[in-house]
C-alpha cells in the first residue's frame, strides 16, 4: 500500500524510515510512487543535512546495495512530540536531582537503575546459546525504541551489536555517564562475555557499537 503524498517528499522519506527502521531507494520509490531518480535526489539532500545515512549491504550478485536509515538528528526531526517531551522531562528531572543531591549521587542512582534493567534482561534472555541471547537482546532493545542489530564475526563466539537510533540520546548528551552504566549493564546481562564499546553516538559517530566476545 502506497504512502499518501504529503507536501514534502523528504518528510515522507523520514517518516517511512522512522516507521520501518531502514529501506532501499527502490523500496522508497515504490512506496512513495515516484521514480528512483527522484528518490535518490531527495536521499542525497537528506544525507547532506545529516538526517540519514546508509550502509552498503553485500548481495549474492552485483554491487552492494545501499540501505538507508535515520541518523539521531533525523530521528529527532520525526519523533512524536510526546516522545520529545518525555526526553525533555527526564533531562530536567536529572538536572534537578543533580542540583539537589549532587552529580555523584545522580550517577549512583542511574547505576542502580541499570542494575535493575540488567536483571530484567537476564531473565528475558534465559540460558540459550550466545547467538540466541544476543539476538533476543537486540529484539528487546528494538522494542524499547533503539534501532538495534547484530552481526556475527567469524564464528558464533563474537558478535557486533549496533544501535543506530538511541532512545535516550537526549539524556545521554546531558549525562554521558549513563552510557558507561549501559556498557556495564550489557556486561552483567552477558556475564560469560567480554563487552567492549566500539562506536559512540556521543562522540559524533552515526551509531553506538559493542563487541561481544565469549570468554
UniProtKB/TrEMBL annotation:
Residues 10-47 form the Helix-turn-helix type domain. Gene3D superfamilies: Winged helix-like DNA-binding domain superfamily/Winged helix DNA-binding domain. InterPro entries: ArsR-like_HTH, HTH_11, SUF_FeS_clus_asmb_SufR_cyano, WH-like_DNA-bd_sf, WH_DNA-bd_sf. Pfam families: HTH_11. NCBIfam families: SufR_cyano. This is Transcriptional regulator.
